[in-house]
Design a protein that fits this description.
Layout (H helix, E strand, L loop, with lengths): L2 H31 L1 H19 L4 E13 L3 H7 L16 H4 L4 E6 L21 H9 L3 E3 L9 H13 L5 E3 L5 H8 L3 E3 L2 E9 L20 H9 L7 E7 L10 H12 L4 E5 L7 E4 L4 E4 L4 E3 L5 H4 E13 L5 E20 L2 E9 L11 H12 L7 E2 L5
Parallel strand pairs: 1-2, 1-11, 2-3, 3-4, 6-7, 7-8, 8-10, 13-15
Antiparallel strand pairs: 1-12, 5-6, 9-10, 12-13, 13-14
Length: 401
């Protein structure tokens, strides 16, 4: 090999090293000259990333509407009877149907058993009502019903089984208070309902039975209240839902005042984590209030909604709107509250034909005239004052007016 070729090979590493050094030095100079620009882009990237990862607080809401007792006296179902022998109660609710349809949850109390015509209809003191009553309320938009009342056992076990069979045909309605087994009761109590990303539970109790006890070993037929039962029921579902709603059949009949037992039960239920308590049984309106530092809203009695008790006090019922609000803050913490209570009064209008009430129609007080109810303006103020007793800031007049 020639010496010239050997010298050429020795220069190759030197040339490669020079090129590498040139690139390194040149790159360093470029980085130094552009350091401010590059640093600013780095900061911009970090800020952009932090903003895009930030969470937004959000509120979910469900609108709830509540009315009182469906107390189907003989005059009511006689008026509903059609020429072909069927029953139609829908015209009685025609003026309230547009109202009810606006709500996510619409509640009423089915005071009388829906045993149906096959077992014979009856009125006071031991009722049995056509199942078409339920059809009309569902058609009007009601989707939550309390079945635990002092009249649940009016037709014995058979009446309850027929009633439960009817409501099972309507799974779109949350019903509570009557069951056919302990297993069915446990499943119902712990059931989680959901609307607008809000989860809720619904449980119904009565403290009255009219002395009509359930058969031995079958107390699932009627949900009779006890502290032990309520504690077990609520603990079985409290951590699964945002709101617990309890319907209570309690209080003193025809009394506008709240009795000691109602207060005792309300405070106990609140201590267990109940958010909304809906009361029935007195057949007249009573006051509403927040208890336990605002943790629980209580409607002590909604009064009657549809009945034939022939007294203005019993023909007058309370309609209550509340909002279930679920708030999730930027850190993911959840807080729930019952807010914005609003009220309106309803009146069952009738005419009298041959000594019988007829043409039953439920209307709101602001739309009554003197032919339907004399002195309705002054009566309106009278019943409002009763409802406002413990919550004078209650808003009267609803968005659908």
């Amino acid at each position: 090999m020639s010496s010239r070729k050997i010298r050429k090979i020795k220069w190759v590493p030197v040339i490669i090293l020079a090129v590498v050094l040139t690139l390194i030095v040149g790159g360093g100079i470029i980085l130094f000259l552009n350091k401010d620009y590059l640093f600013s882009k780095k900061i911009e990237y970090k800020v952009t990333k932090k903003i895009s990862a930030r969470k937004e607080a959000v509120d979910y809401e469900a609108k709830v509407f509540m009315v009182g007792d469906s107390l189907i006296h003989g005059g009511v179902y006689t008026d509903a009877r059609q020429d072909d022998g069927s029953y139609d109660f829908k015209p009685m609710l025609q003026y309230v149907k547009p109202i009810i349809s606006q709500y996510d949850i619409a509640y009423y109390n089915q005071e009388t058993i829906l045993g149906g015509t096959d077992m014979g209809l009856s009125s006071y003191p031991r009722f049995n009502s056509p199942q078409e009553v339920g059809d009309a309320f569902i058609d009007a938009g009601f989707n939550m019903v309390s079945l635990a009342t002092n009249h649940t056992m009016d037709k014995g076990e058979d009446g309850v089984l027929r009633s439960v069979a009817y409501w099972k045909q309507h799974p779109e309605v949350a019903s509570s208070g009557q069951w056919t087994s302990y297993e069915e009761r446990a499943e119902s109590v712990a059931k989680v309902y959901e609307v607008n990303n809000i989860k809720y539970a619904f449980i119904s109790y009565t403290i009255w039975t009219n002395g009509l006890e359930t058969p031995y070993g079958k107390d699932y037929l009627n949900s009779v209240y006890s502290e032990e039962k309520a504690k077990a029921d609520i603990e079985s579902v409290r951590d699964k839902v945002d709101f617990v709603i309890v319907a209570m059949h309690w209080g003193t009949e025809y009394a506008f005042y709240v009795d000691h037992k109602q207060e005792e039960i309300a405070n106990y239920l609140s201590s267990l984590g109940v958010d909304l308590i809906i009361g029935a049984h007195p057949h007249v309106v009573q006051t509403v209030e927040y208890i336990n530092d605002g943790k629980t809203f209580v409607v002590y009695s909604l009064g009657n909604f549809l009945s034939d008790q022939l007294d203005v006090d019993n023909y007058t019922g309370l309609g209550m709107e509340v909002t279930l609000r679920k708030h999730i803050d930027v850190d993911g913490n959840i807080s729930n509250s019952v807010v914005e209570p609003k009220a309106q009064l309803f009146y069952t209008c009738t005419t009298n034909r041959r000594g019988w009430s007829s043409d039953f129609r439920i209307k709101t007080y602001p739309y009554l005239n003197d032919d339907e109810l004399r002195n309705h303006d002054s009566l309106y103020e009278h019943y409002k004052s009763i409802v406002n007793e413990r919550y004078p800031d209650l808003h009267w007049g609803l968005t659908w007016e």
